[in-house]
Amino acid sequence: MNKKKMLSTVLVGMIFLSVAVAIIPTASAKGPKSIYGYVYINDEPADAGTKVKIEIDGDIYNDLTDGSGWYDIGLPSGYEGKIGYFKVTNKNIVPDDNKSVLIGSETGYFIDLHVTKTSSGDDDDDSGGGGGGGAPPAGPTNMPPVANASASETFGLIGESINFNGSLSTDSDGIITRYAWNFDDGATGNGKTTTYTYSSSGTYHVALTITDDGGATDEDTIDVIISVANNPPTKPAVNGPSTGNKNTAYDYTAVSTDADNDTIRYTFDWDDGSANTVTDFLSSGTATTQTHNWAAPGIYEISVKAYDNETDSAATKLTVLIDVHWVKDIGYLIDDDSDGAYDTFYSNSTKNQTDINKQDDGTYLIDNDGDDNWDYVYDVETDTLTEYNEPTTDDYTLLIIVIIVAILILIIIGYLLKRKKDENEE
Questions:
Q1: Which residue range forms the structural domain that includes residue 267?
Q2: Which pTM value belongs to this model?
Q3: Distances 96 to 64, 121, 136, 145, 282 between C-alpha atoms, Å
């Protein structure tokens, strides 16, 4: 063997020995179930907390680097000789084009990972080195998520809860790991859905920022306009007659006030099928007087509301009796021709009109059940209602006797007067 050939052999042997000394002791020291090494970003040790992830046959294992860029991923048995994909994500980098690294994943290897941050400064490029390597092919690209924010109300009120929803946000190649809300008044929230209540009026630009499992983010904003709640007008005070006759005009006055000093419009419902009366807008506290007449006898309930162009007040109701008179709780008398004398009776029990009979003493006989027999005697003047009793046989006998006696007395008086006349003529 010549000297040149011998020198070559010695050099190869020394290189082999150096590699064996550098790798084999480290591997044996770390054990056969780990992949470990240093992560470099632009040839500088990675910051503590840089995430190193390896995927083998769909299973994922990961570790975070320490201050020197060191990582150590422990693996269970069964992966020897498999192919794994490395991915490195630095929390300060928003990657656009993450690339996985295909390596021989035999456990127990010391593998340094060299990551190059692109010139745009917004992505990282994962690469690996070490045992089982070879030229790494380009891996799958992490697609950023798409944020989608919505609210139950975009026009709300102070003190009113608003529901915010980010559940329509999507991530095409992973999962969304964080939903962060900024309510534009100094307050923040988290979660796919959240609820918030504003304490001041104004227009707020609410922002939803989402982050996926690869560290990519996206933001969506919505505007929410918050205003002060409106105070409705007060329940109107209504004055006017509660009884009357048909085809006669009567005046009714209503007045309301508004705590916000808004102008007020009044609506009168006359309860007779006619169109409601709606006034113009008037200053708060300004009374309005409206005139109405009813074409038929009946019991009518006027309803009056005040409106401030946002909210109705509570309704004020006033009952008006037109040519009718209540008879306790059994119904009411009806004056059909407005002549002051009642003609029929409306029965609450039958919901029909029945006959009545006005007696000489001014009381009314009432047929309440419609069987053509009198049931009650009602005195309008004293508002007295009594049950009607049919005269008995003895009553009729006594009446006949009284009539006969009266006739006999008249006959006797007539005879005596005639006799006296005859004596005077003689």
A1: 237-322
A2: 0.49
A3: 21, 10, 19, 11, 64
